[in-house]
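User: Please run a holo structure prediction.
Assistant: Happy to. Please share the sequence and the ligand.
User: Here you go; the ligand is zinc ion.
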Amino acid sequence: MSRTLSLAHLSTEPGNSTHDFVSVDVIGQTVNVPVFLINGAHPGPRLVVTAGIHGGEYPCVEAAIRLGRSIDAAALKGQLIVVPSANPVAFKARSIYITPPDGLNLNRQFPGDPEGSFTRAWADWLFRNVIKAGDLYIDMHGGDMIEALVPFVAITLTGNQAVDQTAERMARAYGIRAFLAKEGVGPIGGTTTGSAAVAGIPAMLTEAGGQGVWHESEVDILQDGVRRVMAEFGMYEAIDTPGEEAERLGGWDWLRADVDGLFYPSVHIGEQVEKGQRVGEIKDIFGETLHTYDAPAGGEVLFLVTSLAMNEGDPLMSIAWE
Ligand SMILES: [Zn+2]
């Protein structure tokens, strides 16, 4: 069997690497997506890593670029595909949550639809050509431009034991403490990693950083995690820095805005809250309280929206319990 690693027009032989843009026609609009291909000199699993599914999440993009540039094909057992900006239209637009041509959240559209609107058609291309190319899949995110978060990893449990166990092994190897394993795709359907898992590809979501900035510490959390997963699966030498031990959380609740207004959280990320504790309120532009929010369960504030402007239906925060 040929061990050439190919994606669209790009291809590279064992022991070699390449990177370039791949041009894709998405319902009449050209998307130039950057791709690194690293073809290990030795056989092993094929890992796919994507970043920037949301255009305003920056530490993951920088971490992916560094991975793409630093993994040495001569020392790699297996193959690595890295897409450091998997939603280039949203990245260029500095867009929060959505992809501008149709206003959809790309991470709710997988596995996509080639006959759908722009974001759905783009999800379809990514799913068929990138995500499904892997034996293992990591999708790196962070808080969006208006979100702060505690780093966490998450997997979707599908009931397929082999897939679920491998995904859990990836999540535990990554080195981030907060670990969510969700039964089934649940209310947040259409994600990269949930759709990959359902298609039989062990997959994990990773989150670090936020608020439209990027710091070396967050870049390190994300790229070190990928390297730990590669070491766990015998693909690459282990790094010296130990990760945090994964602590599986029982689940999480998302609070959402009931009205448009101004958001005043009264908690911070990482804070432990009691069930029923006041966690924030939405006021109108004259300072009158419109709605108050209490914790539906005791637990840890995992992510928090930090923008004053708030729109009905948008997330406010999530609280994860043990
Ligand atoms: Zn994201």
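Residues 216-232 form the longest helix (17 residues).
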